[in-house]
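Researcher: Let's try something more involved. This one mixes different molecule types, so please make sure each is placed in the same coordinate frame as the others.
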Amino acid sequence: MIHVRQLVKEYRGAVSTAALRGVDLDVEAGTFAAVVGPSGCGKSTLLYVLGGMLGATSGTVRVGGFDVTAAGERARTAFRRTEIGFVFQKFNLLGALDVEDNLRLAARIAGRADGAAERIDALLERVGLTGKRRARPAELSQGEQQRVAIARALVKEPRILLADEPTGNLDTASSRAIMGLFREVAGGPGPTILMITHNPECAAVADVVIPMEDGRTGAPYPNAAARPSAERGRR
Amino acid sequence: MTLAVAAILQKKLRSAITVLAVGIGVALLLVLVGLTRGSMNEVAQRIQNVGADLLVQPAGSTSFLALKSGILPERYADRLREIPGVAAVSPVVTWTASFRDALYVVYGIDPAQFASIGGGLRILEGRAMEARGEAVVDSRLAAHAGLRPGDRIEILGATFRIAGISKEGIGARIFFLKSELQEMLHQEDRVSLFFVRCSSPGAVKATALAIEAALRGVKCQLLEGFADDMARSMRGLDEFVAAVTITTLLVSLLVVSLTMYMTVLEKTRDIGILRSLGASRRFIVGGVVVESVLLTIAGVATGYAITAAATAALRARYPLLTVDVTPAWIALAGCVGVAGGVLGALYPAWLAARQDPVRALSYE
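Model: All components are placed in one shared frame. Result:
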């Protein structure tokens, strides 16, 4: 599903900085993978390149058969629109819209407005926010906001879910609830999940853990505690 | 649309200020043009309503400027009557007089001759002036100033008794005997213009040409279509209207541009979020433009409301003023306001569309 070869990303300026220094990575369809590493090791950069938000300096990235590194900005936007769901550390909900409209807009942008109402109902029930569909993000707790963000990512039915430190702004109880939600998503016929985190407790929920340090990934290892999601049926 | 409406409602004060600024621009355009055109049309209409076919003035004069002095010899009246096609002639002395802090065009006429070229003064109360020291005022001025037959007014440094009230909209608002006004202005045997009635409608153009050929130094104007001719003779009017229109366009453009620029800056993170969701640049541009169009439409509607209020206030305070706000100008002002808003949104929209999504997401 995700195949990365010798991926390099340099931020060019007065002083060039290499955030990714030759990343190699393979994540099979249906896997819940966690990239674990300290702050500044290039995890977020990797996620943004995979999601087509950043161009690569060199190397190749193929996601579900789509060559992200060869694609232009417009093609990457179209790819992100239909294939990728993002979950961010800071939730990144649109503050002017209520919960339901945040989800509806995401579905509309993805071109999946048909049946969106039913999917929104189901997702809000799944994340336990049915009673807060008309609430604005500012009226929700941080844990609730992250649950909305997950629902928003899923409403477009992406093939890949990319999560950037999804528990980074949450307390322990909320973090566990969110990880439980990710685990639940991974256990169903949902998307391949790639989560980056510096929190070993969160990484322990994933099927596969990929260590990362200084812009390079290490050898992935299966997480014994988690049931491998790759064994389930995939679309 | 939902996002645009939500964004407008989220920043209520700024949205309200933008709407008000656009509204003031639109109202400025409508009221100023309405006042200008209204006053001009009203004067032109009053001259047309005299009922004559032709207006004879000094050559080279404009319709307005000629209404200021008595420089044509009065004996031209007899020569005019001898020209084939001329049925009746009414010499008129015109002047501008101050009455109760306002300026009015006044006519000095011979009531019988004035009646011979049209419907005359059309007296509603009292009678026409018959003797020196008498005047007639029209019904609009009478209502505004609370005048009735028998009242006395101070004008042109003398006291006049109101002999009657005439129907409004014919010639001037105040009428005196021609001979008396000539004497007061030291313009004996001189008049400002002649109204001429022709023997038949088909003879009007030929008669006008005959008059210009017979009398040196006069121009003869057909009163049919006089308002349009007057508009043409008002040099600078088009430039004035264009200046007000452009000002409105610029006000709308600048206000909306500033608002949307600020909005785009504030919404940098939201733009990053939309881009992360896969929103195209066109979608981002569309969002900014839709928001600005909604703001300007609200601004135009506010402008219409301000115009209605201002027009009503002007009519109440200055009943003699005519504000002519036509459907065509209402439509034009609305288009100008919205066009300014759309143009003003283009640069901020372009800025929004070219935002780097990752940088936008990290914007605090």
